[in-house]
Amino acid sequence: MKKIEAIIRKSKFEDVKQALSDAGIDWFSYWDITGLGKSTEDQVVRGQIFKSGYIQRRMISIVVRDVNLEKTVNAVLNSAWTGETGDGKLFVYDIQETFRIRTKESGPDALYNK
Amino acid sequence: MKKQIISLIALFTLFSTTISAQTAAAVASPKIDTGDTAWMIVATAFVLLMSIPGLALFYGGLVRRKNVLNVFMQIFILVAVISVEWVVIGYSNAFSSNSIEVLKPFIGGFHWAFLNNININDLSPYFISHSQTAADGSTVGTIPHIVFIMFQCMFAVITPALIVGAFAERINFKGFLIFSILWTIFIYNPVAHWVWASDGWLYKLGALDFAGGTVVHINAGIAAIVTAIMLGKRRDYKDHAIPAHNITYVVIGAGLLWVGWFGFNAGSGLAADGLAGNALMVTHIAAATAAITWALLDWCLDKRPTVVGISTGAVGGLVAITPAAGFVGIPGALAIGVLVSLVCFCMVAYVKPKLGYDDSLDAFGVHGIGGILGAILTGVLASPFIQPSYSGAIYGNFHQLWIQLLAVGVTIVFSGVGTYILFKITDRFVKLRVLDKHEAIGLDETQHGETAYTNFD
Q1: What class is the B34-448 domain?
Q2: ipTM
Q3: Which end of chain B has fewer CB atoms surrounding its CB within 10 Å, N or C?
Protein backbone atom coordinates (compact mmCIF):
# COMPACT_ATOMS: atom_id res chain seq x y z
CA MET A 1 0.00 0.00 0.00
CA LYS A 2 1.25 3.47 -0.87
CA LYS A 3 0.27 6.99 -0.01
CA ILE A 4 0.61 9.62 -2.73
CA GLU A 5 0.74 13.26 -1.69
CA ALA A 6 0.78 15.87 -4.40
CA ILE A 7 1.01 19.67 -4.25
CA ILE A 8 -0.77 21.00 -7.32
CA ARG A 9 -1.98 24.29 -8.77
CA LYS A 10 -5.47 25.25 -7.64
CA SER A 11 -6.29 25.94 -11.27
CA LYS A 12 -5.51 22.30 -12.20
CA PHE A 13 -7.58 20.72 -9.42
CA GLU A 14 -10.62 19.95 -11.59
CA ASP A 15 -8.40 18.31 -14.23
CA VAL A 16 -6.63 16.17 -11.62
CA LYS A 17 -9.93 15.16 -10.06
CA GLN A 18 -11.23 14.05 -13.47
CA ALA A 19 -8.04 12.15 -14.33
CA LEU A 20 -8.12 10.28 -11.01
CA SER A 21 -11.76 9.44 -11.51
CA ASP A 22 -10.92 8.09 -15.00
CA ALA A 23 -8.14 6.01 -13.45
CA GLY A 24 -10.64 4.45 -11.05
CA ILE A 25 -9.62 6.34 -7.92
CA ASP A 26 -12.92 7.17 -6.26
CA TRP A 27 -11.81 8.58 -2.90
CA PHE A 28 -9.06 10.93 -1.71
CA SER A 29 -8.61 13.93 0.61
CA TYR A 30 -7.47 17.45 -0.25
CA TRP A 31 -6.89 20.77 1.47
CA ASP A 32 -5.65 24.27 0.65
CA ILE A 33 -2.09 25.03 1.64
CA THR A 34 0.20 28.06 1.70
CA GLY A 35 3.92 27.73 1.17
CA LEU A 36 7.13 29.41 0.12
CA GLY A 37 9.01 28.77 -3.08
CA LYS A 38 10.34 30.15 -6.35
CA SER A 39 7.13 31.38 -7.94
CA THR A 40 5.73 34.29 -5.88
CA GLU A 41 2.69 36.35 -6.65
CA ASP A 42 2.34 40.15 -6.70
CA GLN A 43 -0.09 41.54 -4.21
CA VAL A 44 -1.66 45.03 -4.12
CA VAL A 45 -2.86 46.63 -0.88
CA ARG A 46 -3.98 50.26 -1.01
CA GLY A 47 -1.88 51.05 -4.06
CA GLN A 48 1.31 49.37 -2.80
CA ILE A 49 2.50 46.49 -4.96
CA PHE A 50 4.79 43.94 -3.35
CA LYS A 51 5.89 40.33 -3.72
CA SER A 52 3.66 38.46 -1.31
CA GLY A 53 6.26 35.71 -0.78
CA TYR A 54 3.40 33.26 -0.32
CA ILE A 55 2.21 30.64 -2.76
CA GLN A 56 -1.32 29.28 -2.65
CA ARG A 57 -1.57 25.62 -3.71
CA ARG A 58 -3.76 22.58 -3.08
CA MET A 59 -2.53 19.40 -1.43
CA ILE A 60 -4.15 16.07 -2.35
CA SER A 61 -3.61 12.83 -0.49
CA ILE A 62 -4.42 9.40 -1.97
CA VAL A 63 -3.87 5.93 -0.48
CA VAL A 64 -3.80 3.10 -3.06
CA ARG A 65 -2.91 -0.57 -3.38
CA ASP A 66 0.50 -1.22 -4.90
CA VAL A 67 -1.14 -2.47 -8.08
CA ASN A 68 -2.73 0.95 -8.70
CA LEU A 69 0.33 3.03 -7.87
CA GLU A 70 1.68 3.59 -11.35
CA LYS A 71 -1.54 4.58 -13.06
CA THR A 72 -2.44 6.95 -10.19
CA VAL A 73 0.93 8.68 -10.27
CA ASN A 74 0.73 9.00 -14.06
CA ALA A 75 -2.78 10.40 -13.86
CA VAL A 76 -1.65 13.18 -11.48
CA LEU A 77 1.61 13.91 -13.31
CA ASN A 78 -0.14 14.30 -16.65
CA SER A 79 -3.20 16.20 -15.51
CA ALA A 80 -1.43 18.70 -13.20
CA TRP A 81 1.20 19.64 -15.79
CA THR A 82 1.46 23.10 -17.43
CA GLY A 83 5.22 23.27 -18.06
CA GLU A 84 5.62 26.54 -16.11
CA THR A 85 7.60 26.95 -12.88
CA GLY A 86 5.33 26.14 -9.96
CA ASP A 87 3.55 23.01 -11.18
CA GLY A 88 4.19 21.36 -7.81
CA LYS A 89 5.59 18.17 -6.31
CA LEU A 90 4.47 14.58 -5.80
CA PHE A 91 5.62 12.25 -2.99
CA VAL A 92 5.08 8.51 -2.52
CA TYR A 93 5.18 6.90 0.94
CA ASP A 94 4.86 3.35 2.22
CA ILE A 95 1.75 2.66 4.27
CA GLN A 96 2.33 0.25 7.13
CA GLU A 97 -1.24 -0.86 7.74
CA THR A 98 -4.82 0.07 6.84
CA PHE A 99 -8.02 -0.68 8.71
CA ARG A 100 -11.63 -0.23 7.65
CA ILE A 101 -13.38 0.99 10.79
CA ARG A 102 -16.86 -0.40 9.95
CA THR A 103 -15.87 -4.05 9.30
CA LYS A 104 -12.49 -4.07 11.08
CA GLU A 105 -10.93 -5.56 7.89
CA SER A 106 -7.22 -4.84 7.53
CA GLY A 107 -4.61 -4.80 4.76
CA PRO A 108 -5.13 -3.89 1.09
CA ASP A 109 -8.69 -5.25 1.18
CA ALA A 110 -9.69 -2.35 3.39
CA LEU A 111 -8.81 0.09 0.61
CA TYR A 112 -11.50 -0.72 -1.95
CA ASN A 113 -15.10 -1.93 -2.12
CA LYS A 114 -15.46 -5.45 -3.48
CA MET B 1 -79.82 68.04 30.36
CA LYS B 2 -77.38 66.67 27.80
CA LYS B 3 -77.51 69.90 25.86
CA GLN B 4 -76.71 71.85 28.96
CA ILE B 5 -73.66 69.79 29.71
CA ILE B 6 -72.39 70.20 26.15
CA SER B 7 -72.79 73.96 26.30
CA LEU B 8 -71.11 73.99 29.67
CA ILE B 9 -68.15 72.08 28.27
CA ALA B 10 -68.04 74.41 25.29
CA LEU B 11 -68.01 77.41 27.56
CA PHE B 12 -65.30 75.91 29.71
CA THR B 13 -63.17 75.07 26.70
CA LEU B 14 -63.58 78.59 25.37
CA PHE B 15 -62.63 80.01 28.72
CA SER B 16 -59.57 77.87 29.15
CA THR B 17 -58.44 78.56 25.57
CA THR B 18 -58.65 82.28 26.26
CA ILE B 19 -56.57 81.88 29.37
CA SER B 20 -53.84 79.89 27.64
CA ALA B 21 -53.86 82.34 24.74
CA GLN B 22 -53.32 85.14 27.19
CA THR B 23 -50.39 83.36 28.85
CA ALA B 24 -48.91 82.65 25.43
CA ALA B 25 -49.13 86.29 24.47
CA ALA B 26 -47.45 87.35 27.68
CA VAL B 27 -44.46 84.93 27.34
CA ALA B 28 -43.73 83.43 23.92
CA SER B 29 -42.73 79.99 25.16
CA PRO B 30 -40.26 78.28 22.82
CA LYS B 31 -41.38 74.91 21.52
CA ILE B 32 -39.59 71.67 20.75
CA ASP B 33 -39.83 70.93 17.02
CA THR B 34 -40.83 67.27 16.85
CA GLY B 35 -39.57 66.82 13.28
CA ASP B 36 -36.11 68.17 14.12
CA THR B 37 -35.98 66.16 17.33
CA ALA B 38 -37.03 62.91 15.68
CA TRP B 39 -34.33 63.30 13.03
CA MET B 40 -31.66 64.16 15.57
CA ILE B 41 -32.42 61.07 17.65
CA VAL B 42 -32.12 58.93 14.52
CA ALA B 43 -28.94 60.75 13.49
CA THR B 44 -27.45 60.06 16.93
CA ALA B 45 -28.10 56.34 16.46
CA PHE B 46 -26.50 56.56 12.99
CA VAL B 47 -23.30 58.03 14.41
CA LEU B 48 -23.14 55.25 17.01
CA LEU B 49 -23.50 52.80 14.12
CA MET B 50 -20.31 54.29 12.65
CA SER B 51 -18.24 53.25 15.66
CA ILE B 52 -19.83 49.88 16.39
CA PRO B 53 -19.99 47.96 14.26
CA GLY B 54 -18.92 50.15 11.30
CA LEU B 55 -15.40 51.26 12.24
CA ALA B 56 -14.82 48.08 14.27
CA LEU B 57 -15.47 45.92 11.20
CA PHE B 58 -13.54 48.23 8.87
CA TYR B 59 -10.44 48.15 11.09
CA GLY B 60 -10.98 44.58 12.31
CA GLY B 61 -11.01 43.23 8.77
CA LEU B 62 -7.79 45.04 7.90
CA VAL B 63 -5.66 43.52 10.68
CA ARG B 64 -4.42 39.96 10.86
CA ARG B 65 -6.67 37.24 12.24
CA LYS B 66 -4.73 37.05 15.50
CA ASN B 67 -5.56 40.69 16.33
CA VAL B 68 -9.15 41.16 15.14
CA LEU B 69 -10.79 40.79 18.57
CA ASN B 70 -8.33 43.25 20.08
CA VAL B 71 -9.41 45.89 17.57
CA PHE B 72 -13.11 45.16 18.16
CA MET B 73 -12.53 45.36 21.91
CA GLN B 74 -10.62 48.64 21.71
CA ILE B 75 -13.46 50.31 19.83
CA PHE B 76 -16.20 48.70 21.92
CA ILE B 77 -14.70 49.77 25.21
CA LEU B 78 -14.12 53.31 23.94
CA VAL B 79 -17.82 53.58 23.13
CA ALA B 80 -18.62 52.65 26.72
CA VAL B 81 -15.90 54.57 28.55
CA ILE B 82 -15.98 57.80 26.56
CA SER B 83 -19.80 57.95 26.81
CA VAL B 84 -19.48 57.95 30.61
CA GLU B 85 -16.63 60.46 30.47
CA TRP B 86 -18.83 62.64 28.27
CA VAL B 87 -21.70 62.98 30.75
CA VAL B 88 -19.35 63.27 33.74
CA ILE B 89 -17.09 66.09 32.52
CA GLY B 90 -16.64 65.87 28.74
CA TYR B 91 -19.74 67.72 27.61
CA SER B 92 -19.26 70.41 30.22
CA ASN B 93 -15.60 70.92 29.29
CA ALA B 94 -16.38 71.04 25.59
CA PHE B 95 -19.59 73.06 25.44
CA SER B 96 -20.24 74.98 28.66
CA SER B 97 -18.99 78.45 29.41
CA ASN B 98 -16.03 78.75 31.75
CA SER B 99 -16.46 80.93 34.84
CA ILE B 100 -12.81 82.05 34.54
CA GLU B 101 -12.85 84.81 31.95
CA VAL B 102 -9.38 84.21 30.51
CA LEU B 103 -10.06 80.51 29.88
CA LYS B 104 -13.40 81.08 28.13
CA PRO B 105 -12.12 80.81 24.54
CA PHE B 106 -10.08 77.67 25.27
CA ILE B 107 -12.00 75.31 27.53
CA GLY B 108 -15.43 75.01 29.09
CA GLY B 109 -16.04 74.84 32.82
CA PHE B 110 -17.71 72.36 35.12
CA HIS B 111 -21.12 74.03 35.17
CA TRP B 112 -22.68 71.06 33.34
CA ALA B 113 -20.58 68.30 34.96
CA PHE B 114 -22.75 65.19 35.48
CA LEU B 115 -25.22 67.11 33.29
CA ASN B 116 -26.11 69.15 36.33
CA ASN B 117 -28.33 72.19 35.73
CA ILE B 118 -29.84 70.61 32.62
CA ASN B 119 -33.54 69.66 32.57
CA ILE B 120 -35.02 67.22 30.12
CA ASN B 121 -37.26 69.84 28.55
CA ASP B 122 -34.55 72.46 28.17
CA LEU B 123 -33.95 73.47 24.57
CA SER B 124 -30.51 73.17 23.04
CA PRO B 125 -28.48 76.38 23.36
CA TYR B 126 -26.71 75.25 20.18
CA PHE B 127 -28.40 75.57 16.81
CA ILE B 128 -27.50 76.12 13.15
CA SER B 129 -30.49 77.14 11.07
CA HIS B 130 -33.56 76.60 13.29
CA SER B 131 -33.73 78.89 16.30
CA GLN B 132 -36.26 80.75 18.43
CA THR B 133 -36.35 83.23 21.27
CA ALA B 134 -36.56 81.82 24.76
CA ALA B 135 -38.42 83.30 27.71
CA ASP B 136 -35.30 85.02 29.00
CA GLY B 137 -34.60 86.59 25.62
CA SER B 138 -31.78 84.23 24.65
CA THR B 139 -31.83 82.34 21.36
CA VAL B 140 -32.24 78.57 21.54
CA GLY B 141 -32.56 75.71 19.08
CA THR B 142 -35.57 73.54 18.39
CA ILE B 143 -34.36 70.24 19.85
CA PRO B 144 -33.98 69.21 23.51
CA HIS B 145 -30.61 70.01 25.02
CA ILE B 146 -30.15 66.35 26.03
CA VAL B 147 -30.54 65.20 22.43
CA PHE B 148 -27.78 67.60 21.40
CA ILE B 149 -25.61 66.22 24.22
CA MET B 150 -26.09 62.63 23.09
CA PHE B 151 -25.47 63.55 19.43
CA GLN B 152 -22.18 65.18 20.44
CA CYS B 153 -21.41 62.18 22.68
CA MET B 154 -21.16 59.96 19.62
CA PHE B 155 -18.62 62.35 18.08
CA ALA B 156 -16.50 62.23 21.23
CA VAL B 157 -16.68 58.42 21.08
CA ILE B 158 -15.63 57.96 17.47
CA THR B 159 -12.66 60.36 17.54
CA PRO B 160 -10.35 58.34 19.82
CA ALA B 161 -11.67 55.18 18.11
CA LEU B 162 -10.25 56.46 14.79
CA ILE B 163 -6.73 56.56 16.27
CA VAL B 164 -6.93 52.78 16.85
CA GLY B 165 -6.01 52.34 13.18
CA ALA B 166 -2.53 53.78 13.77
CA PHE B 167 -1.31 51.62 16.64
CA ALA B 168 -3.28 48.46 15.88
CA GLU B 169 -1.55 45.11 16.38
CA ARG B 170 1.12 46.24 18.87
CA ILE B 171 -0.30 48.25 21.79
CA ASN B 172 -0.84 47.13 25.37
CA PHE B 173 -4.56 47.18 26.13
CA LYS B 174 -4.32 48.80 29.54
CA GLY B 175 -1.98 51.49 28.25
CA PHE B 176 -4.22 52.09 25.26
CA LEU B 177 -7.21 52.64 27.52
CA ILE B 178 -5.45 55.11 29.81
CA PHE B 179 -3.98 56.98 26.84
CA SER B 180 -7.36 57.21 25.06
CA ILE B 181 -9.17 58.56 28.12
CA LEU B 182 -6.45 61.17 28.75
CA TRP B 183 -6.44 62.07 25.06
CA THR B 184 -10.21 62.63 25.02
CA ILE B 185 -10.10 64.82 28.13
CA PHE B 186 -7.04 66.89 27.25
CA ILE B 187 -7.12 67.02 23.44
CA TYR B 188 -10.60 66.30 22.13
CA ASN B 189 -12.64 68.32 24.62
CA PRO B 190 -10.59 71.54 24.27
CA VAL B 191 -10.50 71.38 20.45
CA ALA B 192 -14.27 70.74 20.34
CA HIS B 193 -14.64 73.83 22.57
CA TRP B 194 -12.46 75.98 20.28
CA VAL B 195 -14.36 75.09 17.14
CA TRP B 196 -17.96 74.50 18.22
CA ALA B 197 -18.69 76.18 21.59
CA SER B 198 -20.27 79.61 21.35
CA ASP B 199 -17.29 81.24 23.07
CA GLY B 200 -14.58 79.10 21.43
CA TRP B 201 -11.82 81.17 19.85
CA LEU B 202 -11.76 79.43 16.46
CA TYR B 203 -15.56 79.60 16.29
CA LYS B 204 -15.43 83.33 16.95
CA LEU B 205 -12.72 83.73 14.33
CA GLY B 206 -15.12 82.19 11.83
CA ALA B 207 -13.48 78.83 11.16
CA LEU B 208 -15.86 76.63 9.18
CA ASP B 209 -16.20 73.04 10.36
CA PHE B 210 -19.69 71.73 9.66
CA ALA B 211 -19.46 68.20 11.08
CA GLY B 212 -16.00 67.79 12.54
CA GLY B 213 -13.25 67.76 9.91
CA THR B 214 -10.94 69.63 12.29
CA VAL B 215 -12.22 68.40 15.63
CA VAL B 216 -12.65 64.76 14.68
CA HIS B 217 -10.55 63.86 11.65
CA ILE B 218 -7.49 66.13 11.72
CA ASN B 219 -7.33 65.78 15.48
CA ALA B 220 -7.45 61.96 15.36
CA GLY B 221 -5.28 61.77 12.22
CA ILE B 222 -2.42 63.75 13.78
CA ALA B 223 -2.66 61.76 17.00
CA ALA B 224 -2.48 58.67 14.76
CA ILE B 225 0.81 59.59 13.08
CA VAL B 226 2.39 60.66 16.38
CA THR B 227 1.44 57.44 18.18
CA ALA B 228 2.43 55.29 15.17
CA ILE B 229 5.93 56.82 15.13
CA MET B 230 6.38 56.78 18.92
CA LEU B 231 5.22 53.19 19.26
CA GLY B 232 7.52 52.05 16.43
CA LYS B 233 6.92 49.64 13.58
CA ARG B 234 5.35 46.26 14.01
CA ARG B 235 8.19 43.75 14.28
CA ASP B 236 7.35 42.11 10.95
CA TYR B 237 6.49 45.29 9.04
CA LYS B 238 8.59 45.55 5.89
CA ASP B 239 7.61 48.88 4.33
CA HIS B 240 4.52 47.53 2.68
CA ALA B 241 1.00 47.03 3.92
CA ILE B 242 0.26 43.73 5.65
CA PRO B 243 -2.65 42.15 3.75
CA ALA B 244 -6.12 42.30 5.32
CA HIS B 245 -7.31 39.09 6.97
CA ASN B 246 -11.00 39.51 6.12
CA ILE B 247 -11.88 41.83 3.26
CA THR B 248 -15.59 41.04 3.60
CA TYR B 249 -15.48 42.72 7.05
CA VAL B 250 -13.74 45.71 5.47
CA VAL B 251 -16.55 46.08 2.93
CA ILE B 252 -19.33 45.71 5.52
CA GLY B 253 -17.51 48.20 7.76
CA ALA B 254 -17.04 50.73 4.97
CA GLY B 255 -20.71 50.32 4.00
CA LEU B 256 -21.89 50.94 7.57
CA LEU B 257 -19.58 53.95 7.84
CA TRP B 258 -21.13 55.36 4.68
CA VAL B 259 -24.66 54.88 6.07
CA GLY B 260 -23.72 56.25 9.48
CA TRP B 261 -22.06 59.28 7.92
CA PHE B 262 -25.48 60.50 6.78
CA GLY B 263 -26.29 60.97 10.47
CA PHE B 264 -22.86 62.45 11.16
CA ASN B 265 -23.07 65.11 8.46
CA ALA B 266 -26.79 65.63 7.84
CA GLY B 267 -27.38 65.64 11.61
CA SER B 268 -24.82 68.38 12.14
CA GLY B 269 -27.30 71.05 11.00
CA LEU B 270 -29.26 70.12 14.17
CA ALA B 271 -32.49 70.30 12.19
CA ALA B 272 -34.49 68.40 9.57
CA ASP B 273 -34.40 70.95 6.77
CA GLY B 274 -32.92 71.80 3.39
CA LEU B 275 -29.44 72.26 4.82
CA ALA B 276 -29.56 68.71 6.22
CA GLY B 277 -30.74 67.53 2.82
CA ASN B 278 -27.81 69.28 1.17
CA ALA B 279 -25.38 67.73 3.65
CA LEU B 280 -26.84 64.29 2.92
CA MET B 281 -26.56 64.82 -0.82
CA VAL B 282 -22.99 66.15 -0.94
CA THR B 283 -21.86 63.49 1.55
CA HIS B 284 -23.18 60.77 -0.70
CA ILE B 285 -21.81 62.26 -3.91
CA ALA B 286 -18.35 62.97 -2.47
CA ALA B 287 -18.11 59.38 -1.17
CA ALA B 288 -19.21 58.00 -4.53
CA THR B 289 -16.77 60.20 -6.48
CA ALA B 290 -13.88 59.31 -4.18
CA ALA B 291 -14.68 55.59 -4.47
CA ILE B 292 -14.68 55.80 -8.27
CA THR B 293 -11.42 57.78 -8.30
CA TRP B 294 -9.61 55.29 -6.06
CA ALA B 295 -10.87 52.34 -8.10
CA LEU B 296 -9.64 54.00 -11.31
CA LEU B 297 -6.23 54.71 -9.77
CA ASP B 298 -5.94 51.06 -8.73
CA TRP B 299 -7.05 49.98 -12.17
CA CYS B 300 -4.64 52.19 -14.09
CA LEU B 301 -1.57 51.92 -11.85
CA ASP B 302 -1.85 48.40 -10.43
CA LYS B 303 -3.77 46.70 -13.26
CA ARG B 304 -6.86 45.69 -11.24
CA PRO B 305 -9.43 47.56 -9.13
CA THR B 306 -9.25 46.25 -5.57
CA VAL B 307 -12.03 45.94 -3.00
CA VAL B 308 -9.88 47.30 -0.17
CA GLY B 309 -9.08 50.21 -2.51
CA ILE B 310 -12.66 51.21 -3.32
CA SER B 311 -13.65 50.91 0.38
CA THR B 312 -10.74 53.13 1.39
CA GLY B 313 -11.62 55.63 -1.31
CA ALA B 314 -15.23 55.89 -0.13
CA VAL B 315 -14.14 56.47 3.47
CA GLY B 316 -11.63 59.10 2.31
CA GLY B 317 -14.40 60.93 0.46
CA LEU B 318 -16.62 60.85 3.54
CA VAL B 319 -13.82 62.26 5.69
CA ALA B 320 -13.04 65.10 3.31
CA ILE B 321 -16.66 66.21 2.80
CA THR B 322 -17.27 66.33 6.57
CA PRO B 323 -16.20 69.95 7.26
CA ALA B 324 -17.69 71.09 3.95
CA ALA B 325 -21.07 69.32 4.04
CA GLY B 326 -23.04 72.41 5.05
CA PHE B 327 -21.18 74.85 2.82
CA VAL B 328 -20.67 73.31 -0.64
CA GLY B 329 -22.98 72.07 -3.37
CA ILE B 330 -22.59 69.33 -5.96
CA PRO B 331 -19.62 70.91 -7.82
CA GLY B 332 -17.75 71.17 -4.52
CA ALA B 333 -18.63 67.57 -3.61
CA LEU B 334 -17.32 66.30 -6.96
CA ALA B 335 -14.08 68.28 -6.64
CA ILE B 336 -13.51 67.13 -3.05
CA GLY B 337 -14.23 63.51 -3.97
CA VAL B 338 -11.70 63.43 -6.81
CA LEU B 339 -8.97 65.35 -4.99
CA VAL B 340 -9.14 63.42 -1.72
CA SER B 341 -8.64 60.06 -3.43
CA LEU B 342 -5.74 61.39 -5.50
CA VAL B 343 -3.98 62.83 -2.46
CA CYS B 344 -4.69 59.96 -0.04
CA PHE B 345 -3.69 57.37 -2.67
CA CYS B 346 -0.31 59.08 -3.15
CA MET B 347 0.04 59.33 0.60
CA VAL B 348 -0.49 55.64 1.41
CA ALA B 349 1.00 54.18 -1.78
CA TYR B 350 4.13 56.33 -2.20
CA VAL B 351 4.80 58.72 0.68
CA LYS B 352 4.23 56.29 3.56
CA PRO B 353 6.66 53.62 2.25
CA LYS B 354 9.23 56.36 1.50
CA LEU B 355 9.08 57.76 5.02
CA GLY B 356 8.92 54.29 6.52
CA TYR B 357 6.56 54.88 9.45
CA ASP B 358 4.06 52.16 10.28
CA ASP B 359 0.55 53.60 10.38
CA SER B 360 -1.04 50.12 10.47
CA LEU B 361 -4.42 50.92 8.92
CA ASP B 362 -3.69 54.38 7.47
CA ALA B 363 -5.55 56.35 10.12
CA PHE B 364 -3.26 59.28 9.28
CA GLY B 365 -3.11 58.66 5.53
CA VAL B 366 -6.88 58.66 5.17
CA HIS B 367 -8.35 60.53 8.18
CA GLY B 368 -5.53 62.99 8.83
CA ILE B 369 -4.74 63.86 5.23
CA GLY B 370 -8.39 63.62 4.11
CA GLY B 371 -9.44 65.86 7.01
CA ILE B 372 -6.76 68.47 6.31
CA LEU B 373 -7.64 68.52 2.61
CA GLY B 374 -11.36 68.78 3.39
CA ALA B 375 -10.89 71.63 5.88
CA ILE B 376 -8.75 73.62 3.42
CA LEU B 377 -11.06 72.92 0.47
CA THR B 378 -13.99 74.16 2.57
CA GLY B 379 -12.23 77.53 2.64
CA VAL B 380 -11.86 77.36 -1.14
CA LEU B 381 -15.19 75.92 -2.25
CA ALA B 382 -17.73 77.22 0.32
CA SER B 383 -20.62 78.51 -1.76
CA PRO B 384 -22.92 81.39 -0.83
CA PHE B 385 -25.72 79.53 -2.63
CA ILE B 386 -25.83 77.00 0.22
CA GLN B 387 -25.57 79.34 3.25
CA PRO B 388 -25.58 82.99 2.11
CA SER B 389 -23.31 84.18 4.92
CA TYR B 390 -20.44 81.83 4.04
CA SER B 391 -18.27 81.83 0.95
CA GLY B 392 -14.81 80.59 0.02
CA ALA B 393 -11.82 81.66 -2.06
CA ILE B 394 -13.35 80.85 -5.45
CA TYR B 395 -16.12 83.32 -4.61
CA GLY B 396 -13.49 85.93 -3.78
CA ASN B 397 -13.40 85.43 0.00
CA PHE B 398 -9.71 84.65 0.50
CA HIS B 399 -10.01 85.56 4.16
CA GLN B 400 -11.96 82.32 4.75
CA LEU B 401 -9.08 80.27 3.33
CA TRP B 402 -6.60 81.89 5.75
CA ILE B 403 -8.89 81.15 8.68
CA GLN B 404 -9.19 77.53 7.58
CA LEU B 405 -5.40 77.23 7.23
CA LEU B 406 -4.96 78.74 10.68
CA ALA B 407 -7.51 76.35 12.23
CA VAL B 408 -5.82 73.37 10.53
CA GLY B 409 -2.35 74.51 11.60
CA VAL B 410 -3.34 75.13 15.21
CA THR B 411 -5.11 71.77 15.47
CA ILE B 412 -2.08 69.97 14.01
CA VAL B 413 0.30 71.60 16.47
CA PHE B 414 -1.97 71.19 19.51
CA SER B 415 -2.91 67.59 18.75
CA GLY B 416 0.67 66.68 17.81
CA VAL B 417 2.33 68.15 20.88
CA GLY B 418 -0.47 67.08 23.23
CA THR B 419 -0.44 63.50 21.94
CA TYR B 420 3.36 63.38 22.36
CA ILE B 421 3.13 64.50 26.00
CA LEU B 422 0.22 62.19 26.89
CA PHE B 423 1.98 59.27 25.22
CA LYS B 424 5.14 59.91 27.24
CA ILE B 425 3.19 60.19 30.50
CA THR B 426 1.19 57.00 29.87
CA ASP B 427 4.28 55.11 28.75
CA ARG B 428 5.97 55.98 32.05
CA PHE B 429 3.26 54.16 34.02
CA VAL B 430 2.23 51.39 31.63
CA LYS B 431 4.58 50.22 28.89
CA LEU B 432 2.54 50.94 25.76
CA ARG B 433 4.36 48.60 23.41
CA VAL B 434 3.58 44.93 23.96
CA LEU B 435 6.38 42.36 24.29
CA ASP B 436 7.73 41.00 20.99
CA LYS B 437 6.58 37.56 22.05
CA HIS B 438 3.03 38.76 22.65
CA GLU B 439 3.01 40.62 19.37
CA ALA B 440 3.99 37.44 17.55
CA ILE B 441 1.34 35.34 19.30
CA GLY B 442 -1.27 38.01 18.67
CA LEU B 443 -3.11 40.45 20.90
CA ASP B 444 -6.37 38.46 20.97
CA GLU B 445 -4.67 35.65 22.83
CA THR B 446 -2.32 37.74 24.99
CA GLN B 447 -4.55 40.71 25.88
CA HIS B 448 -7.96 39.04 26.07
CA GLY B 449 -7.41 35.27 26.19
CA GLU B 450 -9.78 34.70 23.28
CA THR B 451 -9.44 33.78 19.62
CA ALA B 452 -11.71 34.93 16.83
CA TYR B 453 -11.68 31.88 14.64
CA THR B 454 -11.48 28.47 16.28
CA ASN B 455 -10.79 25.10 14.66
CA PHE B 456 -13.58 23.25 16.44
CA ASP B 457 -17.36 23.32 16.15
Answers
A1: mainly alpha
A2: 0.74
A3: C
